[in-house]
Input
Amino acid sequence: MIILGIDPGYAIVGFGVLNKEGSSVTMVDNGVITTDKTDSFPKRLSIIAEKVKELIIKYKPQAVAVEELFFHTNQKTAITVAQARGVLIYIAESLGVELYEYTPLQVKQALTGYGRADKKQMQQMVKTFLKLKECPKPDDAADALAVALTHARTSPLLLRTTRLN
Output
């Protein structure tokens, strides 16, 4: 199963692509999509949409895992990131890819077992689980890999729950 993890944003969108075969998970690719702050906001959303579409077409994921938003201070940032997140969700849906959403708490618990893990702990777990020599950079790419790993570690549970219902 190919999983595309996304850490949403509008200046920087992190992405991570994993291949899960049985209990083995390997990294295929990771990086960021950046937009120029001098571009209009609609232009930036359009760039994000096109780049995510290219990633889906290139890697043909069976699942897209997106981090849900958690903002408690800056409402303006929350609104613009939410709009970018909406574009990401739309692209996945329009291309027929299953979409899964995970809260920051779920991601932290899935990777560390502790819902208040800090960024360094999360990056270390991404490095460990994927057997990497160093932590992925920039942080947005590592965060996207963490979301994809959460899906890789959670998806068998989702399937079991679906079968029970």
